[in-house]
Queue: 4 jobs
Job 1
Amino acid sequence: INYCRKCPGISKCRKANPMLCTKIVYQGGVVDRQLVPCSKFLDRVMFEKQFQIRDFDDAWLDKKITELDPSKPRKTALEKYVKYVKEGVTDWIYLTGGPNSGRSFVAATFATDAARRGFGPINYINCSKRIGELYDLNKKDKEKFSREMDKLCECKVLVLDDFGNEYKNDFVRDAILFQIISTRASKKLFTIVTSDFSIKDIVTLYSTSKAGEVRAKQIGTLIKSVSGKEINLGELSIY
C-alpha cells in the first residue's frame, strides 16, 4: 500500500504483482486483503483504447502539449487545437515543414491529448504506409476495405501523417483520399494533416490527367477551405 502511495509510474512498477494494488476489506468480522487492478493502469488502458490505429512510437504516448517548443508556428497550431478542445471548433490543422521539423511529433502530441480527454475514436495513420494497404485491400476484400474506410471517414479525430508521400493513382485519389477528405469536411470532423508538401504541391502531385486535375483541385480546395492557412514549422530539426 505504501509503495502504491508513492507510485513511480506504471512503466516503473517493480512490485511482485505489478499493476495490482492491495485493498484492505472487512467482511464477516474478518480483516482481509484483496488484490485489485491499479487505477492508473486501468486509466492507461482506457487511454490507449481511444486509438483505433496509432502509427507513432510508444514513447510519444507520454508527451504533453506543455512540452511543445514555444515557437510561433507551434503556438499557432496549439491555439487551433485548444479551440477544438474548449469551443468545439473543428477547423483542420495543416502542418508543413522540412524533414525532422517536428510535424509528426506535434500531431501526435495533440492526438494523445485528445485521447486523454476521451475524444476517441482516434486514428493516427502514416499515409505512405496505410494508403497503399487500403489500395491492396480493395482488390482482396471489398467489405473489409469499406469497414476500414468508414473507420477513417467517421472517427472523431484523424491525423493524416506524411500526406503526399503515399502511393498514388486515380483510384487512390478518387476512391480513398477524396472520400476521406470530403466526408470529414462535410461532417465537420477534426483532422490534422502533416506533409512535406504545400496544399498547392498536393494538387500538382495528384493531377495525373485532365480529369484527374479537376479532382485534384477539388481536394486542394476542400483542404484549404477547412484548414485555412498552412502552418510551416520551418527547416530547423528540433525533435
Job 2
Amino acid sequence: NIGENKSFLNYKDKYIDLIQLDHIILYLLIQKYCLKKEDKNLNILEIGAGFGNLARMIVNEYNAKYFIIDLPEILILQAYYLTQFFPNKRICFPEDLPNLCLEEEHVKKYDIFLLPPSIKIQTNLKLNCAINSSSFMEMRKKDIQEYFKIIEKNLSNGGFFFNNNRYFKDTSGEKIRLYEYPYDKKCKVIYSNQFLFFYRLHTLITKKIDVETNEIEQEL
C-alpha cells in the first residue's frame, strides 16, 4: 500500500484503490472496443499517462509498442514504474533522441517510448489506438488542438481514438468543453456514454474511416 492510502479494498491479499479500479474499467473498455487479443504488433499512443498504470496493463497483455507523451516531471514517475514491471523492455527516454526527434529508426529499436510535449515526430507512428483519459480537460485549447493533429496524422485507417474526459472544466484558465473538441469528420462513433458513476465524465470512442460524415458532429 504505497502512500498508506486509507481508502482501499483488500482482495485476496492485494490492495485495490479507486485509481486501480478506474484504470481497470478503462482497460476493459479499451479491450472490448479498441483492441483484440489476437492483434499483433500494435502501436498505441497515450497522451497523459499518469504514473503509467494503464500502460502497464496494456503492455502486459498485448504485443505492442507503447508511446507516451507527458510532462517531464511525470515521465520520471513513469520511467521508474514501468522499468520495475518491464526490466527486459527497451525503453526510449528523451535523452535517447537527438534534438528530441523521433524517427523510424527509433521506433524499430525500442518498445516503450517516454516522450515530452516538445517531441518532434518525424515518422508516421501508424497507430492502432490513441488514448487520452482525464488530461485534455486540464489543457488549454491550443494544446488540445495540437494533440488532435498528432492523433489524426498518426492514427491508421481503422484505428481507434479513446477519449475519456469531462464535459466541462475551466481550471486551465479557459472554458474547456468536450463538445468543442476539434474532431476530424473522418471518424465513426463506436461508443459514447457517461463514464460509470462519474456524472461529469464522458467516454467517447471513435474509429478512423476514409470518408467524411456528420456523425461525430451530431454526437458532440
Job 3
Amino acid sequence: FPYEDSYTLERFEATGGYDGLRKALSRRPSDVHSEVRDATVLGRGGAGFPAGVKWGFMPPGKFPYYLVVNGDESEPGTYKDRLLMERDPHQLIEGCLITCYALGLAQCFLYVRGEMALAQERIGEALNDAYANGYVGKNILGTDFSVDITLTWGAGAYIVGEETALIESLEGNRGMPRLKPPYFPAAIGLYGQPTIVNNVETLANLPWLMNNGADQYKTYGSESSPGTRMVAVSGHVKRPGVYEIEQGVTTFRDLFYSDNFCQGIREGHELKMFVPGGGSAPWLFPEQVDLPLEASAVGAAGSMLGSGAIIVMDETTDAVKAALRLVRFYARESCGKCTPCREGTTWE
C-alpha cells in the first residue's frame, strides 16, 4: 500500500475508487456475472472454487437472497485478508456492491473475525462514508440499485471460518457447522434463504476486473489459475510479509529467495520444511520448493494452497515441537462434530 491513508474514501476516490462499480452499473447484471465467470475468479478463502460458478448455484425465484462476506480469517499463519480490511476497506465494499448488482441482492453481511478490532473500525468508518456519499444505500449513484451492507463480528472461534458455522454465528447461534447436504448455503443459507458466501480477497478482485475485463485479468497467472493472489509468508525468512503473486507461475523458490519477495532464509540457514496453505495443510520439504503456487500442483504433491498462509521453518526448528504446537491448537479449537477431529486431535 503506497499511501498511509489508503483506507480513507478521499484516497480511494483519488486512485480510481468506485470506477469499477460505475462500469458495472452501466451494464446488465447478467453481463457482470458472465465477466466474473469468464475470468475464472477463483475463491481465495481456501477451497479455490470459481466465484462465478458458485454464484450460478442460487435457485431462481426464492427471494430474498443474501451475500455473506467471510472475513473470519482464522487459519494459523493467515493475515492477508486482515490487511485488505484494515488498509483497503473501500475496495472490499466496492466488490460487495458489484456482486450484489450482478446477482440482484439487496442485503450484504460483512462478518469480521472477533480479534480484528482495527479491521472492524476501518470497515465501519468506510461504510459510514460510503453511505454518506451515495455508494451504499438507496438509489446508488443515481440508479434504481439499492443495497444495505451490515457489519458484524464474531468472538474469535476458529470453526466459524467454515461457511455454515459462520452463518450459524451470524444468526446469533453457537458457531457450529451445518450438515451438507442439505445445507448448501447457495440453496439453504442465512435465515434459510439462498446465500452466497465469498472470501474478502475474492471480492476485492472484482473492481479491477470490472475496470480491465476478463481478457486482461487472464494475462496474469496460468491458464487454469488466472490472476494474482495474496499470500502471507511468516517464519524463518529474511523479509516476511504479504505478497501479491501470479497464480500458477510463481514458485515457492521464487517466493522464498527472490529479492522481490522474502530474500532468502534468515541468518544463512537452510530451508527444512514449509507449510504451504495454513496450519491445517500438510507440510512440504526442500525437494518440493520448485512447485508453482497452483492448487492442482500442490494438491498432487499431497498438500493444499488453502488460505494463502505460508509458514517457513529452517534447520533450527524442532519438527516435533512445531507439530505439537499446531495439533494443540486444533484440539482446542475443534467443534467436536466430526469424530476423527474430535478424537484424533487430542491423541498427542
Job 4
Amino acid sequence: MILPSQAADVEVDDSRLVLIQSVGRCGSTLVSRVFESLDSVRSLSEPDAFTNLAGWRGSALASDGVIRRMADSCVRMCCKPLAGSEAPSYVAIKFRSQCIEIDDLLAEAFPAARHIYLTREPISRLDSTYRAFIDPETVDDNDYRTLIEDTFAPVHPLIEGEVIKGKPMSAWKLFLLSWIGNNGAFRKVQDKGIPYCVAVFSEIKNNGMETISRILDYCAIPVADLSVIEECLSRDSQKGSGIDQNLINNPAKRLPEEMRIKAQNLLALYGYPTEE
C-alpha cells in the first residue's frame, strides 16, 4: 500500500481528473479504452488499491478519514509523471464496481474531479455477467459461490446482511445483489450532491459516438480526430481476454429462465420492478 508521504509532493489538477464508476458489464472497459486512445489522457483500469480500500470501508477496518487519505495518496500516485516524462494533461481512472462505495470519499479529496457513472438494466447485466463468468459445470459448487460471496459481501452492506454462514448464495443472486448494492450506493453519493455524467449500456451500444462525445464534453477533453474514437467503438473491447465475445456467446452459459424469473422477483422485492 502506498504511504501518504510518497504521494504528498504529487500535484493534481483535479479539474482534469476523471473518475469512472460502474456496475460492471456495462461498457466501462470500452469507455476506458476510448480515454486510453487519446494522447492527452493517461487511462488506468481497475487499480486494485482502491478495491482494497472499498473492502476496508465495508468491513470497518479503518475510519473514513484514514480511507480518504489513502485514496488521496493512491490517486496522486496514479497521476505521478513517469520518469523522463511530463505529467499527463488528463488522468482517467476506471474502478471496479465495488469502488462506488468510496466515491464520496474520492469526491471529498478531489472536489473538482469529473465523475462518470455507467450502468445497465439489471436483467440484461445479470445475463451478461452470467455468460461471462459462469462455468455451467461449477456454478453450483460451494467453493465457487463462496468466492463470489467473499468478493462482494465485505463491500456492500446489503449483501453482507444476506449472508448465511456455511450456505453461500447462488451465483445469480450474488451477481444481482451486487447490482442492487451498487445502485443503492450510487443513489447515496448522489444525495450528497456529487454531480455525475450518467450513461446506460444501451446508449453506448446503440448510439456509441453520441454517448462518448457527451462523456468527453462533460470532462472538457477536446478531441481533434474523431476517427480514433470510431476505431475503438468498432472493436470488441474485451478482445483477447477470457470474456472475448467469441468465447462467451455460448448457449450453455445463458441465464436459465427459472433464474431469470427469480431475479425479477428479487428486484421487485428490493423496489426495482422490471418488465424484462
